[in-house]
Amino acid sequence: MGGGYQLGAVVYHPKVEQIWQEFSAWFADQGLDLAPRYYDSYEEQIDDLLDGGLDTAWSTNLAHVRVLERTDGKAGALAMRDTDRGWRSHLVALATAGIARLDDLAGRRVGFGDADSPQAHILPVHALRAEGVDPAQEFRADRLDRDLGKHGDTAGAELAQLARVRARDLDACVVSSVTLDAVKRQGDADELTTVWTSPPFHHCCFTVLDDTSEEHDRFRRLLFSMDVTDPRLCEPMELEYVNRWVPFDPDGYGDLIAAVAAGPVVVGDG
User: Fold this and answer.
1) Helix axes 42-50, 61-70, angle to 10 degrees
2) pTM of the model
3) What are 72-105's pLDDT values in tens digits?
4) Contact in structure between 30 and 65 (CB atoms under 8 Å)
5) What would be the CATH architecture of the domain defined by 5-84+202-259?
6) Packing angle between helix 156-166 and helix 177-185, nearest 10 degrees?
7) Are 121 and 256 in contact (CB under 8 A)?
8) 5-84+202-259 with 89-200: one CATH topology?
9) Per-domain residue ranges for the chain?
10) pLDDT at 270
11) Which has the least CB within 10 A, 3, 59, 98, 233?
12) Angle at 251 between CA 149 and CA 101, to 5 degrees
């Protein structure tokens, strides 16, 4: 492991490096040498964490669950964003399409996101099956693999599938609550209706193999002290979609743990 506190981050967008460079400068002012390491995929980051190359990994919920799986549940987590709690997945359709409930989608074209997207594929499929609706059997499922390795972070597949709904190439598609909220803020959601909503789940967290070290405690204390009104932090915190860092809550990962344990969740052709 290199010098400093080694933190892994996946570059799903160019802003990721800007965020952690600016965070690193702030941590340095607090006396902590934060050393970000960048990855093209979460799988690469997971391998490096398990090989001892990282102190902590900024993980999607799927990346965290996969580390739990490979450590027999012994891995831990330090913190998460306030905005990581209570995500949901939605099935949306055009309000003029006459689709009001799941039964209306029987035999119709329904879009899902990347195969490794918890919010646009894995969790909604798992939740629908728990309700007795198998998308692979009851819908004409259409999966779009656009950014594999990024676990749906780019939201590119979700937005592309949503565009196909608007073009009436699909009857409905899955979007996360975060994506749908962004579309609403842009004023582009008036023509959409929500057909189904999943149970809540949590998203990202800082994964660690052992959460008891003094350096982990120091990093966590500084995280919790970050203030979005600080001129040095307001821009990178806004880019990271965080208002404040909060303690890790394991309760929002149970459905994903169950989905991953049940085996590969794949519907439609990517």
Assistant:
1) 40
2) 0.95
3) 999 999 999 999 999 999 999 999 999 999 999 9
4) no
5) 3-Layer(aba) Sandwich (3.40)
6) 60
7) no
8) yes
9) 5-84+202-259, 89-200
10) 67
11) 3
12) 75
Read off the tokens for 226. 């970050």
What is d(CA 187, CA 176) in angstroms, rounded to the nearest whole number? Answer: 17
Sheet holding 140-143, edge to edge: 140-143, 109-112, 172-176, 89-94, 192-197
Whether residue 84 contacts residue 203, with contact meaning beta carbons closer than 8 Å, is answered with: yes
Residue 51 has phi, psi (to 5 degrees) of -85, 0
Structure token pair of residue 266: 């794949």
Closest by CA position to 95, among listed 188, 22, 201: 188
Please report, as a single letter, which amino acid is at residue 240: E
In CATH, the architecture of 89-200 is 3-Layer(aba) Sandwich (3.40)
